[in-house]
Amino acid sequence: MLLGAHVSISGTIDKAVDRAVELKCTTFQIFTRNPRGWKAKKLTDEEVEDFREKMKKYGFRVAVSHMPYLPNISSPQQQTFKKSVKSLIEEFERTNLLGLNYLVVHIGSHLGKGLDVGIKRAAEAVNTALSKVEGSVMILLENMAGQKNSVGSRFEDVKRILNLIEYPDRVGVCLDTCHAFAAGYDLRTREAIDNTLNDFDQIIGIKLLKVVHINDSKGDLGSHLDRHEHIGMGKIGENGFRELFHHPWIRDLPLILETPVDSRGDFATNLEKCRELYL
């Protein structure tokens, strides 16, 4: 079972691996830098070496980085778009240096200029990054919850972006369960999960699904509310995740938590719940 969480890099970046080990993770996700700013300090050779050594020592064969919050690769605003593409290239390079497998990217917002504009921009950003950076890392487009002006909440929209990618073997998809549910894709029963995943397969292709962000949803089905909830405490519920974990198309993929940390639980409690439901 490839089960993990988004762990902190506080201190030095290699400490993230230690935190994943403490949580008994078999995969994990990180920000390679402060996610709330545009600028990033260059990774030193020592930092990269320490991180890679710990990855090897503890036997992690799959790990993921996530783009910071500020970039918007679908932005119609030229200055923001240029900064976002620059950030994407930098993160792509850092992910390669650290020996991670995937870089997850939020597709972003068209800011009212329309889906066509957002889709074209997102594809342009990804194509630019892929043309600038070599390596084995795959960029994963993450589905959105359907918030106002968001790009990529529908599988058809993600497919439209993928159709414009000039390096198709270097791009895949990260499916966020909370986002999918909020966008109207039901995940509460085996039948609903079959229908949703069959839609994904017919529209995008299940072979392109590489990582699943496992988050319950505070909002109802189709609410377009991007609010993550503890596993089993939200609108998807325990049965939904039990059925999802047992689905043959999902069971062997990297499953990564981005659940809340509050008085009701943390990553340790959510991981324990997932292991219980997975068995």
Rg from C-alpha positions?
18 Å
| Helical amount | 25-40%
- The low-pLDDT segments are none
Largest sheet: 8 strands, parallel, barrel
The CATH topology label is TIM Barrel
Figure out the total of helices: 9
Strand order of the largest sheet: 1-2-3-4-5-6-7-10
Please give a quick description of this structure:
The chain has 9 helices and 10 strands. The chain is of the alpha/beta class. It has a single domain (3-278), classed as Divalent-metal-dependent TIM barrel enzymes (TIM Barrel).
How are the secondary structure elements laid out?
Layout: E1 3-6, H1 15-22, E2 27-30, H2 45-58, E3 64-66, H3 78-98, E4 102-106, H4 115-132, E5 138-142, H5 155-163, E6 171-176, H6 177-182, H7 190-203, E7 209-214, E8 216-217, E9 228-229, H8 237-245, E10 255-257, H9 267-278
Parallel strand pairs: 1-2, 1-10, 2-3, 3-4, 4-5, 5-6, 6-7, 7-10
Antiparallel strand pairs: 8-9
Helix pairs in contact: 1-2, 3-4, 4-5
